[in-house]
C-alpha cells in the first residue's frame, strides 16, 4: 500500500482508493473509497459495488475469501446496477457485519430481491455439488434489503465529511448508474458498466465533461463491436436459418436486460414480417420476473419505448411467446416440434436450464446455439465460443455439431472506441483514469489508447492495490 497520510497543504484534500476486487477481471467489482482525515477523525468509508466473481472453480473459491477490509467500519455501499457481478456478495458483506447504508436507484432496488433469490438457489446447488461452505443465507439477504435506500436518477445526495454523491445514467441496464463523488470541488466517477449506447430500450449514457478521476470498466477495452444496424440483421438471419434447417435455436441469455432486449427485437422483427412465426420459449423463471419489473418501470426507458408502452403496446410480448416456469415444462421442451427458439439462462452457460438444452441440442447439426453476451473465461459458454469440438456437460463428453453463432453487437457494454469517446468528454479536467473490470489485455490496451490518443494518464491497478488521490 502506498499510503501517504501527511498533513493537508494548500487546501488539498485526499481520498484513498482501494481496488479490492474486480480489477483485473470482468466480474466481482468491489472498490473502497475513504477520506484521509487530517486531525485523527474517523475516516468516511464507502464501497462501490460488491459483486460476485463469475466463471470457474477459482471464482467460487475467491468469493468465499474474507473481504480485505473491515466491513464493520464501512459507512455506505453504492450499487451501480443489479447484475450479479456488481451485487452478488452484498449478503456476504452483511454476514461479515456490514450495517451501513446501501444506495441504488429505485429500479435496481426493485431488481435486487429477485436476483438474490435466484443466487441463493444457484449457490445451494453449487455448495451441494462441490462441498463448499454456504456463502450467505436468506436471512443475510433480508437484512441487506432492510439497509437499502433509493437515489433517483440525476439527483445528488450529501454524505458525511463534505462529500456529495450524484447518480448519473450509465445506460447499461434498467436502473444502472455511474456514481460521481464530489469532494473539495473535484470529483471521482465510478462508471460501473457503461451501456452500448444507443440501445433499443434505454436512455443514452450521460456524458460526463468534468471528471477529475475516473474508475472505468474495460470489458471491451481492446475491441470494437459490429455496427448496431448489423446486429439486428444477424439476429434476423440466425432465426431464418434455424427455421430453414428445422432445428432448435438455443439462446443462452442473461435474464437481466439481454432477455428483454431480445424479446423487444423479436417482437419488432415479427411486427415487420421479417421472420417467420415460430414458437419462442422463454425458459427462465428469473427472466420472466425481471421482465415484469421492466414492464412496471418502463418510465426509465428511452422516449420511443416509453411512448409505445404508454400507448398500450407491450414491447416484450408477441404471438408465439410461451413462458416456461417449471423444470418439468423445461424438460418437455425437448419433445416440442422444431423449429423453435429457446431462450434460457444462464447467459454464460455456467448453470441454469440452458445447460440441459445444450446437452440435448449441441450434438444436432440442424440446431444453432446463438451467443449474444460476453462469455467469461472458464465458462461453458466460452469453451463453446472458442470452437471446442467436445465440451463437458454434467460429466459427459458432448460433441459440438450445432452451428455456433456469436453476435457481439448485442453487448450491453461500450466498445473500445466508445469507451475512449466517453473519456474524451472530460479530457480538459481528467488527472487520471483507472481502467478496471476487464481482462488484463483489454484493460491494458484501453489504458495505452487513452494515453496515446488523449495524453491523459491511465493506470491499471493491481487487485488489492491502494492509491491516494488529491482533491
Ligand atoms: Zn453489468
Structure overview:
The protein is α/β, with parallel strands linked by helices and 471 residues long. It is 31% helix and 21% strand. It has a 7-stranded mixed beta sheet with strand order 6-5-4-3-2-1-21. The chain has a 6-stranded mixed beta sheet with strand order 7-8-9-10-11-20. A 6-stranded parallel beta sheet has the order 14-13-15-12-16-19, with helices on both faces. Strand 1 and strand 2 form a beta hairpin.
What's a concise summary of this model?
By secondary structure, this protein is of the alpha/beta class. The chain has helices at residues 56-63, 84-87, 90-95, 106-130, 138-146, 228-245, 258-271, 285-296, 303-310, 327-332, 354-361, 380-385, 416-424, 440-454, and strands at residues 14-21, 30-35, 45-48, 76-78, 101-104, 148-150, 156-158, 164-169, 177-183, 186-190, 213-217, 248-252, 280-283, 321-323, 340-344, 368-371, 390-393, 396-399, 403-406, 432-436, 466-470.
The helix content is 25-40%
CATH topology of the largest domain: Metallo-beta-lactamase, Chain A
Instruction: Give the neighbour order of strands across the main sheet.
Output: 6-5-4-3-2-1-21
As for the number of domains, it is 2
> Any idea of the CATH class of the largest domain?
Alpha Beta
Mean pLDDT: 93
Give the CATH superfamily of the largest domain.
Answer: Ribonuclease Z/Hydroxyacylglutathione hydrolase-like
Q: What is the number of beta strands? A: 21
